[in-house]
Amino acid sequence: MTIQQGATQEWTKSSYSAGNGACVEIKSPTQGLVSVRDSKDPQGPTLDFGPESWVAFVTAVNDGAFEAA
Q1: Does any domain span residue 68?
Q2: Rounded to whole angstroms, how far apart are CA atoms 65 and 10?
Q3: Domain named DUF397: which ranges (predicted)?
Q4: Is the N end or the C end of the chain the one with fewer CB atoms within 10 Å?
C-alpha cells in the first residue's frame, strides 16, 4: 500500500520491513504529519515528521544513503 500524506488513516507496515519482526508502521492522518511506530509496540511512542522531512528521508533511503558499506 502506498502512503499518501494526509490520506492514510490506518497504520501500514513498511515494504522495507523484513520478516524477522523488525518492522515499522507508518500512517499520515493529516496533510502535515507522517507518523512512524515500532510494530512490536503498537501502544508505544511514535515519531512524527513534517512532510518536507519525510520526503527528504524517503529520498535518501531510495538513493541508498543508509546502506551498509
Answers
A1: no
A2: 28
A3: 10-61
A4: C
